[in-house]
Amino acid sequence: MNELASTPGRLIPSGSTDRVGWLRSQIVGVDAEVPLLDGTRRPYVYLDNAASTPAFRCVLETVEECLRWYSSVHRGAGFKSLISTHAYERAREVVLEFVGADRDAHTCIFGKNTTEAINKLAYRIGLEPGDVVLTTIMEHHSNDLPWRVQAEVVHAGVDRQGVLDMEDLERKLELYSGRVKVVAATGASNVTGYTPPIHRIAELAHAHGALVVADCAQLAPHRKVDMRPVGAPDHLDFVALSGHKMYAPFGTGALIGPRQFFRRGAPEYRGGGTIDIVTVDEVYWADPPDREEAGSPNVVGAVALAASIQVLNSIGMEVLATHERDLTGYLLERLSRIDAVEVYGISDPQRLDERLGVVSFSVKGIPHGKVAAILGFEGGIGVRNGCFCAHPYILRLLDVRGATYDGYKLRVLSHDRTELPGLVRVSFGCYNTRPEIDHLVAMLERVVSGGYQGDYQVERESGFYWPTQFDPALLDAYVPI
Ligand SMILES: Cc1ncc(COP(=O)(O)O)c(C=O)c1O
Question: What number is the average pLDDT over the span 168-184?
Answer without folding.
Answer: 98
